[in-house]
Write a structure and sequence with these properties.
The complex is a heterodimer of chains A (about 450) and B (about 425). By secondary structure, chain A is an alpha/beta fold. Chain A contains 18 helices and 19 strands. In chain A, the strands form 6 sheets. A 5-stranded parallel sheet of chain A has the order 4-3-2-5-19, sandwiched between helices. Chain A has a 5-stranded parallel sheet with strand order 7-15-9-10-11. In chain A, strands 12-13-14 form a 3-stranded antiparallel sheet, with no helix packed on it. The termini of chain B are far apart. Classes of the chains: A alpha/beta (about 450), B alpha/beta (about 425).
């Protein structure tokens, strides 16, 4: 049987409908009613649950009083990517999970949508709420163009430092631009947001500049007063099976990036039967987007149970209601092919033993597929990063940092997906960048003081 | 099923809910619709002498909103009827013929000259109305011309005009009082002294709604200028209840029948009015916000409530709460209550903590053993009821009386003997 892969499974209108805003923005009357549901809690659990510590009851109160500008200021001063986080945060596992309304009636205040209401109004209008600080005379190199880097750059600019952002990609934004499902960030919002962030001034963006190729960590340390590393993870984890390079086995991350950059989504090749291996957000995103591009049958195969999935329950439900079938307790054993292309995967059933350890059961099952997507996580491609790996202390394959996001080098900080112990969330990356910038500022001013003494 | 039929001053109506004299009772069309919907009676939009008044041709009403645009209060600068007297009288006559079982009351506002009353009162009564209501309450517009609240604020004027009405009317006379006074009792006494059969209260309260945030002028305005209006609706209810209770509990005014007006939106509001001394109630704002249909909830809500209380008729409820209203000086200072938080109902919003911390007596924890936890500290709680008032979960925080032992706050034993301010050692004027 031939692999059934073709583009144009759906017409342009169908695709447009399928890729509309996943959670349409609140209109003013809806926002006021929703804002009114907030109880303005003391020491609010939602704020505690927010990795960037946004004063959530505070910004909601300002929506209530029609002080949208003040509301956006409250959000963006803690999280300059509050607009994107409003769209992509797994709020059901963060602020909304702990909302006291959840306790009361199982229905949290829709914090994400309210945050979007407040920030969209400001970011789309490009209303500048932040000022570049008085020039400090210090310069900082920021490596990477994603959330951690841009957050760090923005805060450094607010603090008066001159920032140069080196981004390997053609467009800034990192995974916001290349990695997020299209229906979560419509109307080119990622670029609008980056434009808003850079408009503070004092930040020079150098695109298509890669660490390890165009410059080294040592050269940056030489040239700049401090360095922030936020280059993310360039590699996709391998399935660890024979013939993994065979035609039809595709990196989910790469396909999602293509989809985001496609002029015309209908031109993308789409398999009739799609198999996704993995259990995180990327697995959900690739599965649902394939379904929405017209795949007939999309299956996620995950080697553990629903509770162990990286994707939240809400995301899992979203996949289900989008027509994706998720099969649990299936570990890929080998790729099936006709010698030219993959045409399925043989799985072994798994189970957890009494110590919660995954065990193979010796039972097998085959699933046919025209395309198999790998979505089992990413890694830092140290091999491409020149002197970086040898210069820094690592932990579990990522950069080791302290609470202030400082690395083992006294003038180098790091944040986002490339550091150890993170949550792999946009919002966590933004917090990394912010904390690092504050610490870099202390470092730079400290050295200034000592120079003056 | 409780009997909701009402008899007020001998006027029978199928229920105690009348429409107050206001826009909803401006003409036959509206009153017909109201009676079709089930309202027990209507006080016609206030009549005056011809030539009839004119209204502004811009905004007459403005609202005070909650966040979802729920109307908390209303303000108006509408004057009395702006239609010729004979048109009103003709319609009233017809309405009374078509709806003989409903109460129809004529509200009047007349110049302070006896001959005007002598001429108009019999003419109006001839339509077949059940009673008069003398509008001594409207605080806007007409008061500038020496009528409405301008009369209601001077007991002597109330008495004089009420005497004229009483002299020329054969049906009952109700005096409608203005709340724009510091003490409601002198106006009530004046009405009684003049032979009024009843008082109705409250009329609207002097008010300005807000400013326009763009032009920074008063809102609403007529061609850039505004004038104060009369405030009414749910926000006005507590003011009405206080004045009604004052009349009902004061020995020399307690025998005046009261028609309660002010902020009645649902049946519970009616229970408040009735229990604090009103014999029937009048409604306007709720109809201006929701239309006549709200009568359904007023009727069966009140009926179900009476059934639950084992009461068979509305009069069983009238004045029930009046004996519980007293002066502060007679409150039992030995009675001690403490707030108590039901941990099963608590959703841990922490608002009780923060208000007690910022406002009251620092008597509610925010954490216990390092965990978020809200609990009352009896040794600090003064029983102020603030936490109960602001808790978003009904019934979660309650006040519990101390019935014995020692008050952990004062270290003194709880006394079951009553002791009020009149006998308190700190009172220099105490009764010995």
């Amino acid at each position: 049987m031939h692999a059934d892969i073709e583009s144009g499974r759906l017409n342009a209108a169908e695709i447009e409908t399928n890729f509309l805003d996943m959670h349409p923005p609140l209109e003013r009357p809806e926002a006021l009613v929703e804002a009114d549901r907030c109880y303005f809690c003391f020491d609010a659990p939602c704020t505690r649950a927010c990795p960037t510590g946004i004063d959530i009851p505070g910004f909601i109160q300002k929506i209530r009083s029609n002080n949208t500008k003040g509301s956006a200021q409250t959000i963006l001063s803690e999280n300059i990517m509050g607009g994107m986080c409003a769209r992509v945060c797994p709020t059901e596992e963060l602020c909304e999970e702990v909302c006291v309304r959840t306790t009361l009636e199982g229905q949290p205040v829709q914090i994400g949508l309210l945050q979007r209401y407040a920030t969209d109004a400001i970011i789309n209008e490009r209303l500048q709420l932040f000022q570049r600080g008085t020039a400090s005379g210090k310069s900082v190199a920021v490596v990477g163009g994603g959330p951690a880097s841009l957050s760090c750059a923005h805060r450094l600019s607010m603090l008066g430092h001159q920032v140069t952002v080196f981004d390997a990609a053609g467009k800034p934004g990192g995974l916001n631009e290349y990695g997020i499902a299209a229906y979560k960030t419509t109307h080119d919002f990622a670029q609008t947001e980056v434009g808003y962030i850079l408009s503070i001034g004092g930040i020079e963006l150098r695109s298509k500049q890669a660490l390890g190729r165009d410059f080294s960590l040592a050269s940056l340390r030489e040239e700049y007063d401090a360095v922030f590393l936020g280059f993310g993870m360039g590699g996709v984890n391998a399935l660890g099976m024979q013939d993994e390079e065979i035609e039809g086995v595709v990196d989910a991350v790469e396909y999602i990036a293509k989809l985001r950059q496609a002029e015309n989504k209908a031109d993308l090749p789409v398999g009739r039967r799609v198999l996704v291996i993995g259990g995180g957000m990327t697995a959900i995103d690739i599965a649902v987007q394939n379904k929405r591009l017209g795949s007939e049958e999309v299956t996620i195969a995950y080697r553990r149970g629903p509770e162990q999935m990286g994707a939240s329950q809400l995301e899992q439900d979203f996949a289900r209601t989008s027509g994706v079938v998720t099969r649990h307790w299936l570990a890929p054993e080998r790729l099936l092919s006709d010698g030219q292309r993959v045409n399925g995967v043989r799985f072994e059933y798994t189970r957890l033993d009494e110590n919660q350890k995954l065990q193979a059961t010796g039972e097998y099952r085959e699933l046919a597929a025209d395309i198999v997507f790998k979505a089992i996580g990413q890694n830092v491609l140290w091999g491409t990063l020149g002197d970086t790996e040898e210069s820094l202390a690592l932990e579990a394959g990522r950069i080791a940092v302290n609470e202030q996001r400082k690395t083992s080098l006294e003038d180098v900080w790091a944040g986002g997906d490339c550091v150890a112990g993170g949550q792999d969330l946009t919002v966590a990356a933004v917090q990394d960048g912010k904390l690092a910038a504050l610490d870099i500022d202390r470092f730079l001013r400290g050295s200034q003081n000592s120079l003056g003494a | 099923m409780a009997d909701l039929s009402s008899e007020f001053l001998g006027i029978k109506s199928p229920n105690p809910f009348w429409l107050a004299s206001a826009p909803p009772t401006d003409k036959a069309y509206n009153v017909n619709r109201a009676f079709e919907a089930g309202w027990g009676g209507a006080v016609w939009k206030t009549l005056g002498e011809d030539p009839h008044v004119v209204n502004v041709n811009g905004p007459r009403y403005a609202a005070n909103y909650g966040n979802d645009r729920r109307v908390i209060g209303f303000n108006n600068i509408e004057l009395i009827t702006d239609r010729p007297l004979d048109v009103n009288l003709k319609e009233m006559r017809q309405i009374k013929r078509d709806w003989p079982d409903r109460a129809l009351v004529a509200s009047v506002m007349l110049a302070m000259e006896e001959k005007v009353w002598a001429r108009l009162i019999p003419m109006i009564e001839d339509t077949g109305i059940d009673a008069f209501e003398l509008n001594f309450g409207c605080p806007h517009g007409m008061s500038e011309r020496g009528m409405g609240a301008a009369v209601g604020q001077v007991p002597e004027y109330i008495q004089m005009a009420t005497e004229w009405a009483r002299k020329y009317a054969s049906v009952p006379v109700i005096v409608k009082l203005t709340p724009n006074v510091t003490n409601i009792l002198p106006p009530a006494r004046a009405a009684k002294a003049a032979g009024a059969d009843a008082v109705s209260l409250i009329n609207t309260i002097n008010s300005i709604m807000r400013v326009d945030y763009d032009s920074l002028t008063m809102y609403p305005s007529t061609d850039g200028m505004g004038s104060h209006g009369g405030y009414c609706g749910p926000g006005a209810k507590p003011i009405a209840l206080h004045m009604i209770a004052e009349i009902a509990r004061t020995p020399d005014t307690a025998d005046i029948p009261i028609s309660g007006i002010g902020g009645i939106t649902d049946w519970r509001d009616a229970v408040d009015h009735l229990a604090l001394g009103a014999h029937n109630v009048q409604v306007c704002t709720a109809v201006m916000v929701y239309g006549f249909k709200i009568i359904d909830d007023l009727l069966d809500g009140l009926s179900n409530f009476l059934d639950e209380k084992g009461m068979t008729r509305v009069s069983d409820l009238v004045g029930k709460a009046v004996p519980s209203v007293t002066d502060w000086q007679y409150l039992n200072l030995n009675h001690i209550e403490k707030a108590s938080i039901n941990q099963h109902l608590c959703i841990s919003c922490g608002r009780c903590h923060v208000v007690c911390e910022d406002v009251s007596h620092q008597a509610i924890t925010h954490s216990v053993a390092g965990k978020r936890h809200f609990e009352v500290l009896d040794e600090a709680c003064v029983g102020c009821n603030l936490c109960v008032s602001i808790c978003p979960v009904e019934g979660c925080i309650t006040m519990q009386p101390l019935t014995g032992g020692v008050d952990p706050r004062t270290g003194k034993p709880v006394s079951n003997e009553k002791a009020d301010w009149t006998m308190h050692p700190a009172n220099p004027l105490r009764e010995r």
